[in-house]
Amino acid sequence: MSEPTITMSVEEEVALLRINHPPVNVLSSQVMEEMDKALVELKGAKVVIVTGTGNFFSAGADIKELAQLASADEAISFAQRYHEILRRIETSPIPIIAAINGHCLGGGLELAMACHIRIAAEAIKLGQPEINLGIIPGAGGTQRLPRLIGKARALEMLLTGEPLSAEEARGIGLVNHVTKPMILLEEAKFLARRLHGKPAIAMGLIIEAVDGGLSKSLVEGLELEARLFGRVFLTEDSHEGLRAFLEKRPPGFKNK
Description:
Blueprint: E1 6-11, E2 14-19, H1 29-41, E3 47-52, E4 56-58, H2 63-67, H3 72-90, E5 96-100, E6 103-105, H4 107-114, E7 117-121, E8 125-127, H5 141-149, H6 151-160, E9 164-165, H7 166-171, E10 177-179, H8 184-196, H9 200-214, H10 218-232, H11 236-246
Parallel strand pairs: 2-3, 3-5, 4-6, 5-7, 6-8, 7-10
Antiparallel strand pairs: 1-2, 8-9
């Protein structure tokens, strides 16, 4: 039996998922299926961190697998499965942080973009180089990248295939924070602990509101927000948070 390509540990309700597929952590079908299984079976975690092992977060899809796609229908099915898995990440009510420890290219960047927050190590590269292979991104790159950084910048990255530095990516909003490599994971865990103290249901509803609203008009997005605003008032934590504020004390959230 082959070694697992995704390893998972949970400590104090923070789950750490590591891509463990040396040497460059390509996102083969096996890696993606194991990632999906880990997300489905994830229990007892309030925040998730996704990172890579070695010097790469991920160099992208397995080119050998792509070369074996024999028809347009096979390629469509391949892309749709990756879309399904990454949408599970993107729509997860549990906040998912990408701790980008090394170069993050192609499908690796598509995975990172599906996460809710991205922290990158210095001196890494992030890019969508598919054009240099005569193909286009197939795991969401043409859709998520312009939503994150705007149409013109996204098209330049996609059409040239040239990567950005971590600082360049931070400057255009592709990553939230840049830090030194040796403290990247600690920075991600620090952020995870900050999120851990927030009410879980409200965090999930915020993710749902933002994700759902992006595909709607402003009016429709506001209607969605109003419905979710109503739903959050059914939770015990909403009442506790408001009472705690009025009573000038820290809230005791119970994720209920």
